[in-house]
Specification:
The chain is mainly alpha-helical and about 425 residues long. The chain has a domain of about 70 residues: Herpes Virus-1. Helices cover about 45% and strands about 10% of the residues. Helix 6 runs antiparallel to helix 9. GO terms for molecular function: zinc ion binding.
């Protein structure tokens, strides 16, 4: 039956009590079959009620039926046990669209598991068994299932393409070597596959090496990006702190300058007020003396005039003569503050350029270095600088200018500002 391609369910020959293949099968009056020992043991449990039922359909019998062997069913089970029970193919073994189908199956075809290069056919798990068991198929070569067998055959000689022509770089059959490929460099396809696999293996090794290098570069790139993010946050926090301190320093100096101006104003005014009171006292004294002189000149009594003249002392002389400025002001202080502003602007401008240079130097992807040909076209000034030495520090009026972080600060900056021009104009007027 199995050889005829008839598929039978396992459950058709299984006992529903022990769930195994029927042993000494018997059939009860309702038509269901069981192992003789299984149904007898089942009915023994109901012996006390004298009512015996079928485990499947629940039909009851009384008295207890006599169990007779079903010889026909026993013969079928015995033959199937000897030949092997061919089960119904499961859905997993059936060929789906895109699968290679078994060339032996009829009706609904199973999925092929192997293809034979000698038979030029594909087989499912069931139909490939003879190739494993029969000595007649011992020399047949089984390979993974492939789709169209005709693709493996020579279109001219209808023979298997088992030779590779290196001259024409194509697969041919053995008969092709006798005509159009005669004298060509040809080898067995299996040998060429071995060599090609070796070449492809080397290519794959290099590919894996390139992948590992790219993965390493990618990991380094991610680490660099993380480092830039963390470093930029730290730089922002630190620059915020420093500029806050600078702002506080400028504000403190501003307060100090205002206090100096006000203190000088108070001191100058106090000194001037003291001198003013002294001069007013001297002026009052002079006015009194002048009034006495006027009255003396108006006296007609000679005796009284002479007596009063003797009482007059000599004209008092001023011991110190102070110089009074006609236009005292804080203009020079304003000029000094303006000059201080210009210097701060220069320092800030130079510092900003230096900071920008250092910030712009932070990169992740570095451009490729120029070739040696481009290096020969470097400026002469760079060529004149000895290797390992830096260029001389910039100077202002022959005096070296202090540097900070590789950036030279000029006393007057790189470009004249409006405040700096005002300072220079005041200096020329002096």
């Amino acid at each position: 039956m199995a050889q005829a391609g008839v598929y039978l369910e396992h459950d058709q020959f299984n006992c529903s009590i022990c769930l195994d293949v029927l042993k000494d099968p018997v059939t009860i009056p309702c038509g269901h079959s069981y192992c003789k020992g299984c149904i007898a043991g089942y009915w023994d449990q109901d012996e006390f009620i004298s009512l015996y039922g079928c485990p499947q359909c629940r039909q009851t019998f009384s008295p207890r039926p006599v169990l007779g062997k079903n010889t026909m069913l026993a013969d079928v089970v015995d033959k199937l046990n000897k030949t092997g029970l061919q089960s119904v193919p499961s859905d997993d073994s059936l060929a789906e669209p895109g699968d290679v189908e078994c060339d032996v199956c009829t009706g609904r075809k199973n999925k092929a598991v192997r293809s034979c290069l000698v038979c030029l056919a594909s087989y499912c798990e069931s139909h490939v068994q003879p190739h494993y068991e029969s000595p007649a198929f011992k020399r047949h070569k089984l390979v993974a299932p492939f789709g169209t067998i005709q693709e493996k055959l020579c279109s001219r000689h209808d023979k298997l393409l088992e030779v590779f022509c290196r001259t024409d770089q194509q697969c041919i059959c053995s008969l092709c070597l006798t005509d159009e490929h005669k004298g060509h460099d040809a080898v067995l396809a299996s040998g060429e596959i071995t060599e090609k696999k070796s070449e492809i293996g080397e290519m794959q090794r290099k590919s894996q090496q390139a992948i590992q290098e790219r993965e390493k570069e990618l990991e380094q790139l991610k680490q660099s990006m993380t480092s830039v993010t963390l470093s930029s946050q730290a730089a922002l926090v630190e620059s915020e702190r420093i500029f806050t301190e600078l702002s506080a320093t400028i504000a403190r100096r501003h307060s100090e300058v205002k206090e100096i101006i006000r203190a000088q104003e108070r001191a100058v005014m106090a000194h001037a007020e003291g001198y003013l009171r002294q001069q007013e006292q001297e002026l009052n004294h002079l006015r009194k003396r002048d009034a006495e002189l006027v009255r003396l000149l108006q006296t007609d009594d000679h005796v009284s005039f002479l007596q009063r003249c003797q009482c007059l002392g000599a004209q008092p002389e001023r011991v110190e003569v102070a110089t009074i400025r006609t236009d005292p002001n804080f203009g020079s202080a304003i000029a000094a503050v303006t000059e201080f502003q210009a210097l701060l602007e220069d320092v800030c401008q130079g510092g900003f350029f230096n900071i920008s240079e250092k910030v712009n130097a932070v990169i992740i992807i570095e451009d490729p270095k120029p070739k040696a040909d481009n290096m020969e076209q470097a400026p002469e000034t760079a060529a004149q600088t000895p290797c390992g030495l830096s260029a001389p520090a910039p100077t202002t009026f022959g005096v070296p200018v202090p540097t900070f972080g590789g950036f030279a600060f000029s006393t007057f900056g790189s470009r004249p500002s409006s405040s700096r021009l005002r300072v220079q104009q005041r200096r020329r007027r002096r």
